[in-house]
Amino acid sequence: MSRLDKRIALITGGGRGIGRGIALAMAREGADIAIAELDGETAQSTAAEVQSLGVRSVAVQCDVATRADCEQAVSTVVDELGGIDVLVNNAGWSKSPVSLLDVDDEQFERTHRINTLGTFWLMQLCHPHLVARGGGSIINFGSGAGTQGLPGQGPYAAAKEAIRGLSRVAANEWGPEGIRVNVICPFANSPGMLAWSKIDSKSYDATVRSIPLRRVGDCEADIGRAAVFLASEDAAYVTGQTLMVDGGMGSFR
Ligand SMILES: NC(=O)c1ccc[n+]([C@@H]2O[C@H](COP(=O)([O-])OP(=O)(O)OC[C@H]3O[C@@H](n4cnc5c(N)ncnc54)[C@H](O)[C@@H]3O)[C@@H](O)[C@H]2O)c1
């Protein structure tokens, strides 16, 4: 028996990077997988990859910054796979680094729509479906940019810390219904991270040098496996927590 047999996981932004890594790791543990992703093509390709591992999958084109898209995604997944046990709010976005004095409202609002509101809407929309199956696991995504207050990352850091606040409130409000809510703060070799390494190679190199384990994390082997743990019965008594899956570099101030 695999650790996620008979579970159905909805993963946002699962077309590439960490979301894809989590989809593959959860599928290898027997979970059926739904990918809700802005890029319809990559959503389809990850769905095909996980299907080849012997589980069911569905791909939904979805912009998590739009409530109607989130509603459509949840109802499609429930219709096609029969419910939701695990919600992974992985989709995230940040613009190039900019100092606080130069941030405009449009950038601030867009960053919050994708990261904070997308996460919040999907938590609300999935809640009745998790309850209907006797509880479940929600995994949200924070960032060292927020926990450390990285310069140039104002809107993104604020959004990621808002997500951690929401997650703690949900852990308290929904714990009695058997729903666990945790946050992963990752560091991994996703396409998004590789793009940042080219835009700001000095900061990227300094960051990598500061990692105690001396390597950049792998989207599936490192982050995906940590997500499997949080989704599984192994983490049955774990909620309201932030798990730093970053080779040991992240610190809270
Ligand atoms: N990679 C890291 O080291 C790192 C560090 C800190 C936090 N994070 C967080 O981890 C998560 C995954 O990051 P990643 O590095 O894999 O990112 P990535 O940019 O490589 O991939 C993000 C995926 O999300 C999708 N996406 C973007 N906007 C979307 C939207 N509006 N609706 C639906 N899908 C959308 C993209 O199409 C893409 O497939 C994000 O929440 C990110 O903020 C990553």
Detailed description of the structure:
By secondary structure, the protein is of the alpha/beta class. The chain has one domain: Rossmann fold. Helices cover 49% and strands 15% of the residues. The protein has 9 helices and 7 strands. The chain has helices at 17-28, 40-51, 67-81, 105-132, 144-147, 154-174, 191-199, 201-209, 219-231; strands at residues 8-12, 32-37, 57-61, 86-89, 136-141, 179-186, 242-245. The protein has a 7-stranded parallel beta sheet with strand order 3-2-1-4-5-6-7, sandwiched between helices. α4 links the parallel β4 (86-89) and β5 (136-141). α4 (105-132) runs parallel beside α6. The longest helix has 28 residues, at 105-132. The mean pLDDT is 96. The site of nicotinamide-adenine-dinucleotide (NAD) has 29 residues, from α1 and α7.
Assign a percent range to the helix content: 40-55%
Count of helical regions: 9
* Content-based structural category: alpha/beta
Number of domains: 1
Second rung of CATH, namely the architecture: 3-Layer(aba) Sandwich
Bound molecules: nicotinamide-adenine-dinucleotide
> If strands are numbered along the chain, what order do they take across the biggest sheet?
3-2-1-4-5-6-7
- Give the full name of the CATH homologous superfamily: NAD(P)-binding Rossmann-like Domain
- Find the count of extended strands (DSSP E, 2+ residues): 7
Query: Given this structure, which CATH class is correct?
Result: Alpha Beta
Identify low-pLDDT runs: none
The outline comes out as globular
Note the beta-strand portion: 15-25%
CATH fold name: Rossmann fold
* pLDDT averaged over residues: 96
Q: What's the story with the biggest beta sheet?
A: 7 strands, parallel
Q: How are helices and strands ordered from N to C?
A: EHEHEHEHEHHEHHHE
Span between termini: 41 Å
- Radius of gyration computed on alpha carbons: 17 Å
